[in-house]
Specification:
Helix content: 25-40%
Number of strands: 13
Oligomer: single chain
Largest sheet: 5 strands, antiparallel
Shape: elongated
CATH class of the largest domain: Alpha Beta
CATH architecture of the largest domain: 3-Layer(aba) Sandwich
Mean pLDDT: 84
Low-confidence stretches: 283-288, 291-296
Structural class: alpha/beta
Number of domains: 3
Distance between the termini: 80 Å
Strand order of the largest sheet: 12-11-10-9-13
Radius of gyration: 30 Å
Strand content: 15-25%
């Protein structure tokens, strides 16, 4: 059984080395413990016998009692504790399951629980750590390419093609897909990050797609702001005082479908695109509580 963190990225970079593990040890069958979401990255992978979507947290030991009993009753011969730093949850779970062969790194605490230690160069690219572990287990030189391998179904491909068309990504430009809120959301102000991505998109031919939590935190609020701004521009009426994106102040004299006549000085009227309006200044009624007349009710001495 293979243990490790259950983030999608953590699972994906391990898929680079699963074919070598499977091919070099053809008589071994491997189960992979993951989370419900990250397990989807392993669906259809011929190197894995069973995907176990039991993890409820980052660490492999975050499983229910029922799943623990299931894994213990499976009587695994070997467990690969694939984490390079926080590997002690893997090692402790392997011991609790009664697995006698425990492969892992020994850089930090609880190293005595690993009876098949693996040396590694630190630091290295994350995919290289599991590559080095597989190389140690199989005896194969760690020279295979570190390219993640997924095996989408026909339904997956249909849904992906549909999303591709819906997002307007058929221009032929390079596409970068980012899940950018999986680690430190809020480290940079959201609006600044979104503006930086817009600048990259404006200055290059790269299409940037945000997905997962990034959609909720970045794209959806920006879309709502754009919709609100467009609604404001559509609601402009003659007589409104407006401010344009260029900083001009004026009064709307007349409206057409896409343009407006803006008086920017007495007798000076300019024709502007309606979308050039940045803000509308309208009178707002504000209720003010009456101020108490201190002469009528003089304060009493304390």
């Amino acid at each position: 059984m293979i243990l490790g963190h259950n983030h999608i990225g953590d699972v994906l970079y391990r898929t680079c080395s699963l074919p070598t593990l499977h091919a070099a040890l053809p008589h071994c069958e491997w189960d992979y413990l993951a989370g419900p979401v990250s397990a989807q990255a392993l669906e259809g992978n011929p190197a894995i016998r069973r995907v176990l979507p039991y993890q409820r947290g980052d660490d492999s030991w975050t499983i229910s009692r029922a799943h623990f009993r299931e894994l213990r009753n499976a009587k695994y011969d070997v467990v690969i504790c694939s984490n390079v730093l926080r590997y002690y949850p893997d090692a402790l779970l392997a011991v609790a399951l009664g697995v006698t062969n425990r492969v892992g790194f020994t850089l930090k605490g609880f190293s005595a629980l690993i009876n098949h230690p693996v040396d590694t160069a630190f630091p290295s690219p994350y995919p290289a750590y599991f590559q080095n572990m597989v190389s140690s287990v199989t005896g194969m030189p760690p020279t295979w390419p570190l390219v993640p391998k997924v095996f989408p179904s026909s339904t997956d491909l249909e849904q992906a093609n549909s999303a591709w068309k819906d997002l307007g990504l058929e221009s032929g430009n390079q596409v970068i897909a980012c899940s950018i809120t999986t680690r430190q959301p809020g480290a940079w102000p959201r609006d600044h990050f979104l503006r930086a991505l817009e600048i990259v998109n404006e200055r290059t031919r790269v299409e940037i797609v945000l997905f997962g939590a990034a959609w909720l935190l970045f794209v959806l609020p920006a879309r709502r702001r754009r919709m609100s701004h467009a609604a404001m521009q559509d609601s402009i009426e003659p007589g409104d005082e407006v401010i344009t994106a260029g900083g001009l102040h004026g009064t709307v004299k007349a409206l057409e479908e896409d343009t407006l006549q803006l008086e920017i000085a007495p007798g000076v009227v300019a024709t502007l695109d309606r979308r050039a309006v940045a803000a509308v200044a309208r009178d707002v009624e504000v209720e003010v509580e009456p101020v108490q007349n201190l002469d009528e009710n003089p304060p009493r001495p304390g």
